[in-house]
Amino acid sequence: MKRSGVGFGVLLLVVLARAGHAQGADSTAKVASAPDSAILTPAIIDQGRKIFHGQGNCYACHGDKLEGGPVAPSLRGQTWRHIDGSYDAIIHRVDEGMPGTAMVAHPGGISEAQVLMVATYIYAVSHGVTKP
Hints:
The chain is mainly alpha-helical. The chain has five helices and no strands. Residues about 1-5 and about 25-30 have low confidence and may be disordered.
């Protein structure tokens, strides 16, 4: 019972954060370089890790330790091949995919809330907040 309460709390924070990002987005807005501190928590990072290595199936291309491979680039550094490594850029890539590649939108059929959790995990690993 306690575990589901934590999961609901994490989900609520993620949904609220997503709403905040969407409301603040316009053509003149700066790209958020980091997630809000309410999102960058051990619980959300851990949920993102579980999705990355589970339902999202992200590890299949990006590797168990986000090291990349022949199909997809490493997600370990702060700058990447196709995006700048900012939190919003990571969200956008997981949300929209990468046309012409194996990177599909919402890999594994993950929800909008799960997109944010995965993005938080990837951001945390790539910026040295946590280990893969």
